[in-house]
Design brief:
Layout (H helix, E strand, L loop, with lengths): L1 H31 L30 H6 L29 H18 L3 H12 L2 H6 L6 H32 L5 H22 L5 H22 L2 H4 L3 H15 L10 E4 L5 E5 L2 E5 L1 H18 L4 H12 L3 H25 L7 H22 L4 H25 L7
Antiparallel strand pairs: 1-2, 2-3
Helix pairs in contact: 1-4, 1-15, 3-4, 3-6, 3-13, 3-14, 4-6, 6-13, 6-14, 7-11, 7-13, 8-12, 8-15, 11-12, 12-13
């Protein structure tokens, strides 16, 4: 009977993942499909060959000046000023379906609030692939590299807005249910401020989309490989406390007991060693190493334009050995602080242009997904949360790594 239940849960999870991946491909096709434009009754005056737009089109930040220096025209890598305005207010840019955007944002909010990670990655998949902004940014690689890099900054910042809201909601929900290891989260968050503040200064307007996409895939793929290792017998050694706490938590959920009564409690705090308990198990961590980890993770995540949960999760499960039920909330708190710092840097220092209408719609979807996640997470076994994370990490990592560095799609995206 136990084996049948296990197979049943596995089938359900695999079905959901398959559906999500197929939906990604379908959404991509829908988002990028455009009706054929009817020929205008009066043909607009054509700019001379080689002429530039010569106008910022009322767009702020570095986006406007970059557009002014872009070749005018209707071909790839050019801007047709007579075309309807699309994403970021740019004429001829992808016209994003807001219904599609809100549905995808619900998925982003749910996956981040459930696993404590992958929200930024899924936000990136939406902006880059589903909405077609990646191919659009690529088209300016040779005609105007400055616009290519500015759009890359805009995509990075847009991703972080979605994760930031989800992180805020998840932090509140997990804190209420005492599933947030706040002493550990504070140490990580303080480090994340230092890491996130410098990346926009150092890389804003300097990273091409091709470079961004390739490294995006590398980091995601590596993290997936680490989590695969953690599921092996060798990787499972030393995780007895996490396993015991997860099993105790799952038992309480099945018996419908008050889980918050046995939630995270600070047992000991010290500069080099601190301890918290969760469902009868003790977990130790070094605040100094947590601070350093926060610096490194925030720097990487700020560069990629994601929340960093996909790095915080394996860090917390591997270094601290905490169960996923605690990791999700703790990761969300660290991501929240990192996102606030990074977003401020990209907007004020890198002058990234934003599509505020799109961001507003997406935040509504993220809010819905983030409210659902913590309420459904407790019904999914700890092991399956990791498996969901691994499958998505390997798939997305391979896809963007191959496109960024080899110009080929090794998996459908």
């Amino acid at each position: 009977m136990g084996k049948v239940k296990w197979l049943g849960k596995g089938a359900v999870i695999l079905f959901i993942l398959s559906l999500a991946l197929l939906t990604t491909a379908m959404f991509t096709a829908v988002a990028q499909e455009k009706p054929k434009a009817e020929p205008p009754k009066i043909e607009a005056a054509k700019p001379a060959q080689g002429a530039l737009v010569g106008n910022n089109l009322g767009l702020g930040g570095k986006l406007g000046p970059a557009i002014a220096k872009t070749p005018a025209g209707k071909g790839p890598g050019q801007i047709d000023v007579s075309a309807p305005r699309g994403a970021f207010g740019i004429p001829g840019a992808p016209d994003i379906n807001y219904l599609l955007a809100i549905i995808w944002a619900v998925w982003v909010g749910w996956i981040f609030s459930t696993v404590g990670a992958f929200g930024g990655i899924m936000a990136g998949v939406g902006h880059i692939t589903v909405y077609g902004l990646g191919d659009y940014a690529k088209s300016f690689r040779t005609t105007n590299p400055a616009l290519n890099k500015t759009l890359t900054d805009s995509i990075r910042t847009s991703n972080q807005f979605l994760v930031g809201l989800s992180a805020l909601i998840s932090t509140i929900n997990y804190l209420k249910s005492k599933r947030l290891a706040w002493p550990l989260g504070i140490a990580l968050a303080l480090g994340s401020i230092a890491g996130a503040v410098f990346i926009p200064m150092l890389t804003g307007g300097k990273i091409s989309f091709k470079q961004y996409q390739g490294w995006f895939g590398v980091f995601v793929f590596v993290v997936g490989a680490v989590l695969i290792y953690e599921l092996t017998p060798t990787g499972q050694k030393g995780k007895k406390a996490a396993k015991a706490a997860a099993q105790a938590f799952e038992k309480s959920v099945k018996e419908k007991k008050d889980t918050s009564s046995q939630g995270v409690t600070l047992k000991q705090f010290g500069i080099t060693k601190s301890t918290f308990t969760f469902f009868g198990s003790d977990f130790h961590f070094n605040p100094i190493w947590a601070f350093i980890g926060g610096i490194v993770i925030a720097a990487i995540s700020s560069f990629l334009g994601v929340g960093g949960g996909f790095l915080y999760v394996p860090y917390l499960t591997s270094i601290v050995g905490a169960p996923m039920y605690v990791v999700a909330g703790t990761s969300a708190f660290a991501v929240l602080i990192s996102m606030l710092t990074s977003i401020a840097g990209y907007i004020t220092v890198a002058k990234a242009g934003m599509d505020w209408g799109l961001i507003g719609i997406e935040l509504v979807g993220v809010f819905i997904g983030s409210m659902i996640g913590p309420r459904t997470q407790k019904y999914i076994p700890d092991k399956w949360l990791k498996i969901i994370f691994i499958i998505l990490a390997v798939y997305v990592g391979l896809g963007y790594f191959s496109q960024g560095f080899f110009g080929q799609k090794w998996v459908p995206m």
